[in-house]
Design brief:
Four copies of one chain form a homotetramer. The first copy, chain A, is α/β, with parallel strands linked by helices and 340 residues long. Chain A has two domains: 2-141 and 313-325, Rossmann fold (3-Layer(aba) Sandwich), CATH 3.40.50; 144-306, Dihydrodipicolinate Reductase, domain 2, CATH 3.30.360.10. Chain A contains ten helices and 14 strands. Chain A has helices at residues 12-21, 42-45, 74-85, 101-108, 125-134, 143-157, 186-189, 204-212, 252-262, 314-325; strands at residues 2-7, 27-33, 56-57, 65-68, 89-91, 120-123, 137-140, 161-171, 194-195, 221-228, 235-243, 269-271, 287-294, 299-306. In chain A, α3 links the parallel β4 (65-68) and β5 (89-91). In chain A, α5 crosses α10 (314-325) and α6 (143-157) runs parallel beside α8. The longest helix of chain A has 15 residues, at 143-157. Chain A starts with a strand and ends in a 15-residue tail after the last helix. Chains A and B meet through β8, β9, β10, β11 and β13 of A and β8, β9, β10, β11 and β13 of B.
Chain lengths: 340, 340, 340, 340
Amino acid sequence: MVRVGIINVTGYMGAEAARVLYGHPEVEIASVTGRSEAGRNIGDVYPHLTALDLDIQEDLDDVDVIISALPHGASAERLAPYIEQGVPVVDLSSDFRLKDVSQYERFRGKHPAPHLVEKAVFGIPELHHDEIANGKLVANTGCHSAAAIYALAPLVQAGLVDSNIIVDSKTGLSGAGRSVKQNLHFSEANESVTPYGFDGHYQQPEITQELGALWEAPPPKVTFIPHLVPVTRGIMVTAYAAPRDGVDGTPTDNLRALYEDFYADATFVRVSDGPPSTKHTAGSNYCLVFPTFDEESGRYIVIGTLDNLGKGGATGGVQCLNIMLGLPETAGLEGLALYP
Amino acid sequence: MVRVGIINVTGYMGAEAARVLYGHPEVEIASVTGRSEAGRNIGDVYPHLTALDLDIQEDLDDVDVIISALPHGASAERLAPYIEQGVPVVDLSSDFRLKDVSQYERFRGKHPAPHLVEKAVFGIPELHHDEIANGKLVANTGCHSAAAIYALAPLVQAGLVDSNIIVDSKTGLSGAGRSVKQNLHFSEANESVTPYGFDGHYQQPEITQELGALWEAPPPKVTFIPHLVPVTRGIMVTAYAAPRDGVDGTPTDNLRALYEDFYADATFVRVSDGPPSTKHTAGSNYCLVFPTFDEESGRYIVIGTLDNLGKGGATGGVQCLNIMLGLPETAGLEGLALYP
Amino acid sequence: MVRVGIINVTGYMGAEAARVLYGHPEVEIASVTGRSEAGRNIGDVYPHLTALDLDIQEDLDDVDVIISALPHGASAERLAPYIEQGVPVVDLSSDFRLKDVSQYERFRGKHPAPHLVEKAVFGIPELHHDEIANGKLVANTGCHSAAAIYALAPLVQAGLVDSNIIVDSKTGLSGAGRSVKQNLHFSEANESVTPYGFDGHYQQPEITQELGALWEAPPPKVTFIPHLVPVTRGIMVTAYAAPRDGVDGTPTDNLRALYEDFYADATFVRVSDGPPSTKHTAGSNYCLVFPTFDEESGRYIVIGTLDNLGKGGATGGVQCLNIMLGLPETAGLEGLALYP
Amino acid sequence: MVRVGIINVTGYMGAEAARVLYGHPEVEIASVTGRSEAGRNIGDVYPHLTALDLDIQEDLDDVDVIISALPHGASAERLAPYIEQGVPVVDLSSDFRLKDVSQYERFRGKHPAPHLVEKAVFGIPELHHDEIANGKLVANTGCHSAAAIYALAPLVQAGLVDSNIIVDSKTGLSGAGRSVKQNLHFSEANESVTPYGFDGHYQQPEITQELGALWEAPPPKVTFIPHLVPVTRGIMVTAYAAPRDGVDGTPTDNLRALYEDFYADATFVRVSDGPPSTKHTAGSNYCLVFPTFDEESGRYIVIGTLDNLGKGGATGGVQCLNIMLGLPETAGLEGLALYP
């Protein structure tokens, strides 16, 4: 059994990693840490994890591989020594996602370990399988960016779209984490929709970077606005783009064929037959994409949906971990979405 | 007291009209009808309306003005004789909204009374005050189209934008009405986001018509996708548009000034200081707009939010009724949103 | 116009008092305070209250009557000088509800102004109309206790029940206030039901006191457990009691007649024809009661439901204010529930 | 691999059985039926089950064991020939739960196969392990009754309580099934709590029967009222009972020890350290119980909570299936609850 350590198991991302690894046939959770909860059993913090019967520690014991669920900044700082020693790491934070450190620092302040950024592979297995397999540091994707990248990658790689892309995202509130805040207070968030990110959002350059790498043209210009919607888990991205100048729009049927082909080997990305719902992915490692071309307005409209703690977070990270360690890519991830 | 009749008081739109008219100082609900509930007291169908103590009838008694909350098709058919007799009518259905009957028929099938369409005024009081005051037939706005029109009218009238406009809408489920359907079943809709309208949506031409009337250019080309979100009341439109060719983008501060000016006399449309929430409008006749210009992507991003049964429905209809009858425009509509 | 001051308008109770008083025909909100928000306009804190256009102050200006929405302890402390000066006060906190200060101190710690307790009238207008009319200090009811008292008062007063009463309450989360807490965090509270109060709950003696005053027997022994349910507004109490020894159970039809009679003059307490829903009362000053006798188990089962910020809170407080000031009892309170 | 057939896979219970059996190491779903959906692939009805890639049939192929998720009445009728042939069956409906057919017929109308009732074992594995192991027909427990029985069995078996027991249940809406109904319409059910069952509820005699079998006294007299709460999955029962005449109340600490002992060998029933939440069990086969004694009122208050489609439904049924077939009792059921 591979011995995995989870840093900050007490956040939602860490807890979700623990939940799914509990059922992983080739991995054992050997050690977990949690900021303010050290000394308690994990079941005292999260009753649904009681069966794990793990004590939360200040520091990790020796492990074969690490998943970090720390917030940005703290994660890079804590991981740096491990990375330098060559311990395989999946970082669920945003610290190592952007090749251009200045883009990181625009949103996140000074990077704690910029010298390690070049070691990182962006954790979208369907685009970077071999680099992940050969790497030691996975910078797991953001949740919005995952949904956007899965929705748009086939279109962009095929060179079919104009570089002006609109990404309208609707996100469940667990993506904002477990720390209490006024706008996440039940009475405020329930029965409401609220947009945010008007001064820029740190996941916008993630989308730009990853889509930009798929074609030779300059990186796309992505307009990105996320919205809080009153669900716990789930992100839906609605992406809008015009056909590239001089290229006709691709009718929906052909577009679907293109997507089917692009994701032919991807167990966890499925081209949906009809408009998908976030709930079709809850608690699973699946992403559903639904590509269409609107003949009337001449625009591509593509939906991408996934669980922000799942394929866009902890379970997506476990998929990367599997690849990095040479385990079967789907191990521990076969669980279907909880519906209804 | 003006005697009003409500046709189909048993739908959500009709019930909301009744709720707000109960507190109207110059209007009395004289007669109500409801399709399958005739003979029952309104409080038996809607306990919250018990205080009205009205019997639901097959047909309206004589009244001074009519609000119809029937579904499309049935509404025009039922209203035609009243309109022909010159009874003032506010139609909450979509039957008389579109000047171009072929656009209506594309989505709704054969129009039951196309000869009456020219008599109708589109029920957005902030754009059509005088026509409403002088008219006898208000075709009350759609809920999505209201939010989109309020969000975009100042930009379009000022000629600042390109004609390619994206309207991404998130709607509460009461907009789909009281009739039970699988996708409105609690266990399916709760904790989920689902897009629809990929084959076109009947409110898209409403937006096109109303915005098109605000400039001399050809009508804008509107890409419109609505999404079901698990709230009962509330619509949020996020509109995206590029500056018109050859015109610089207007910075957010100036844009806000433009909007403040445009809505200076509008009691119920407010330029929000920060990103608004649907819940800030629930149960009220207010619409909040939040205009921004994203310098990085060079796109206008404008939010419009309202209660789909409120400003985008029944209370907006009461505002039109007030204007049409020469009553104070805000009478009966002063109620503030229910928050939290 | 009567000039009212609201202390702590920034909590949910204070904001709801402001919302409803905005439409009150004989009262003007003259001055409002809020702990940490002094200096801001109320619309900056609560966008739905923008139309009030009031600055939040440190201290109240001179007013004719005060509503306090401070938390317990702070409320009595702040109100004491006003009460001593004879300013009429409606206290929405629990500070002056219990005649037996030791019961208060059991849950709340040292009472800041025990000498004023005897001046207070418990704010259930249907039981204490004349004392409220003649008093200067209303200790407005608790939200759970209101629902329980309305549900049980007719049964208890008629001497029909045994003194062992079970009160199972389900409450929306706005009752826990605006301050953020882990168990009120959307992702934790949503899609969940959680009981609390196993070490006792401060509203249990409120129920005991008020029901005990309705008969000559010793006070009833009330077992009380509240549960958080994922709604914003609304409380439902399900009360269970056996017939008093030697007294036959009263069949449901007779029981309903007893309740109809008891509440014959109560505008805002209605005997529901069928099992009521919390949502039938949201945003209103109505309480619905539904009394039944279960022949099979020989138990009375009575439902009481209301909006915890409404009849069980701020609007109930406004009703008391009306009575205390000699205004029409229903002034400003005619608004019907927001449904759906 | 054991070949299982699921009858009526298109209801929520059937779909949940399919979801969990997909991950079962020793069982293969060989054949599924669904009333109106025959001919479609299961992924067309339930996108989250796409990976199963099963065609929905009119009739089952030959299988080793059957799970029926048909509604009551239809289930017994369809199962009768299989039972008569000796095919092992887990019936998730209520058809074979009650030994006293007249109690069944009181709520459900004429029983389609009363001669088979005596063959059935009530599907609570913690009470009936050996009968299930030796039987061929499991009448899987009801969802409310499961929560009530787990909450009360230790108290009743120990003879500690009076026979007058109050069971107040709060249930998520998936328990009412997938068929659309007005009271399950999102806009009606959301943000609301509604009690039902005032004329009796068919699960009340299930509770009475199972608890009654645990002591020598006459069966307890159970007062049972369920409430709809706006969650999809989850039931919480709050049970109230007085100590038996002449027996002192058992303090909470001792009570907990009693429960720990009673459930010492039960993998899936856990005595909770603090007040549990329904959400701690969502999507899992766990039941949490929380026994307390309220010294002040002299009443036992015990919480039982589980997922109505989980331990109180489909996964509980799979546990019975495992026992009946001699498979490891926990096979396929190790999945932890989805939280948050």
